Amino acid sequence: MRHLVNPPGSVRHLSLFGFFALTATMVMTVYEYPTFASSGISLVFYLVIAGVFWFLPVALCAAEMATVEGWDRGGVFTWSGHALGEKWGFANIFFQWFQITVGFVTMIYFILGALSYVFDWAALNDNNTIKFIGVMVIFWGLTLSQFAGTQYTAMISKIGFIFGILIPACILFGLSIAFFATGGISDMPITMDAVIPDFTQLNTLVVFVSFILAYAGIEASATHANEMSNVKRDYPIAIIMLVVLAIVLNTIGGVAIGAVVPEKQLGLSIGVVQGFEGLFNYFTHGMDWAVRVIAVLIALGVVAEVSAWVVGPSWGMLEAGKKGLLPKGLSATNSQGVPVNFLLLQGAIVTIWAAVLTFGGGGANVSFFTAISLTVVIYVVGYIIFFLAYIKVVISDSSLKRAFEIPGGKPVKLGVAFAGLIISIVALAISFVPPAQLGGGAAASEYMTILVISFVVTLFIPFVIYHWMRSKNPLPAGVRMLDDDPAEKTGD
To answer: Which of 78, 124, 233, 260 would be a feasible disulfide site paired with 116, CB 3.0-4.6 Å?
Structure first.
């Protein structure tokens, strides 16, 4: 879910595979497999629905708006701002950035879960005080490391992806195939009847939000579509390949975890490690050392992802800052081009979320579910604005020049956009239903209280900021979206 801004003067140098690899690193993760497994074999249904009717529409609509002439910088801020007005563009980029401040906590929860297994230190995952300290040490350590420059971040990210995600995933897939090939009996019921969820039980459907989160962020790579050698031909091929591969790999990963870890024992933040432990124990005992090595690799992989995301999501907000929508102090960068003050603000917000989710979450799984749902509801509001902006472009701005268009004309374009919009609204609605895994009672009550209050407060923040900044730096009369850089003209 990295939010990148295309550099000016970018050239067409990305091949089909290059773009595919870039996008795959943004949306494929291992640590969400346990969440998939928690929904049983119906994970296949959720992955297909989310992939075909949400992931694909986001990718296609984003590519069309990203390749509109003059819209290749700023991402959703530019797209929604030009289509719906600057206020909605700012709200869109704010929600896209703000959700990752919650997402950081989710990712670091996983790191702590893996390390708790490696060091046989249960308190790191179960004791709220120690858990909070762990989140702070990891996040602030990575944030401070960025101040000297981000020139090594991409390299660290690639190494982390290979050793922390790709290699463990390949081992997991190999072990799971061998498990079933040698007659292993899955703890997860695998029948065709179980693939379709029980729609009469609404609280079982809330897990669907985690499948939306698994695919979120594809719109970020669309800003690189103009760099492709043949965008009209290669972009749809790359996206279809990615959708198919993501569905297949996520299905295998979720089934592999669910096959060997009983649902009642599944920890969402340590489930991947539990899965490796169960698979290794099926074949031979005494392989704890191998599980610990893999746990370290996965933890390092997620550390690399967090490191890349510390600065990445801020670039879209800084683009808005250039339009006079952030105080100068937040928009300024140091000699290394790093927005230090903005990162400090981001760190303060992450600290608040970590405290709320850790001490108010009522337990490891409650905190994890709440963090995931809060990330999704914030992000999904941004996607609703995004799809409404695309629909406005299709209906009212068909004359805009773009390098890529969804084939099939206006009816197909609107059908694709409305599919994504409807799924987004459904995901938003069911996010407020406590998951069945929480069992109701006090845990469900705490989940709802934290989620609702945090969501309502977050919903108003961008509009308050926009009104405040535009009252100090007003747009010229009749202008809906400022195209030039007002940095030299406006105050803070």
So the answer is: 124
d(CA 410, CA 422): 18
Residue labelled with tokens 């695919």: 215
Based on DSSP, count helices (H) and strands (E) in the chain, helices before strands.
23, 0
The burial of 203, by beta-carbon neighbours within 10 Å (0-12 exposed, 13-18 middle, 19 or more buried), is given as middle
How much is the pLDDT for 491?
Answer: 42
Would you say residue 465 has pLDDT above 70?
yes
Closest CA to 255 of 186, 195, 193, 191: 186
Positive or negative, the Cα torsion across 226, 232, 234, 240? positive
Q: Give rounded-to-5 percent helix, strand, coil for the chain.
A: 75, 0, 25
Whether the CB-CB separation of 357 and 381 falls below 8 Å is answered with no
Residue 114 CA to residue 466 CA, distance in Å, equals 40
Nearest to 337 by CA among 486, 150, 140, 154: 150
Q: Quick one: pLDDT at residue 14?
A: 66
Question: Given this model, what pLDDT does residue 203 score?
Answer: 58
> What amino acid occupies position 170?
C
Q: So what's the pLDDT on residue 215?
A: 81
Q: What token pair was written down for 235?
A: 């972009």
Look up residue 455 and give its amino acid. Answer: F
CA–CA separation, 128 and 368 (whole Å): 12
Q: Which residue in the block uniquely carries the two structure tokens 């230190």?
A: 121
| Four-CA torsion 83, 27, 43, 443, nearest 10 degrees | -80
- Backbone φ and ψ for 398, nearest 5 degrees, come out as -70, -15
- CA–CA distance, 323 with 284 (Å, rounded to integer): 61
Instruction: Tell me the average pLDDT across 375-404.
Output: 90
Strand partners, 14: 228
**CA-to-CA distance for 331 and 324, rounded, in angstroms?**
9
Instruction: Specify whether the CB–CB gap between 144 and 344 falls below 8 A.
Output: no
| Burial profile 433-443: b = 16 or more Cβ within 10 angstroms, e = fewer | bbbbbbeeeeb
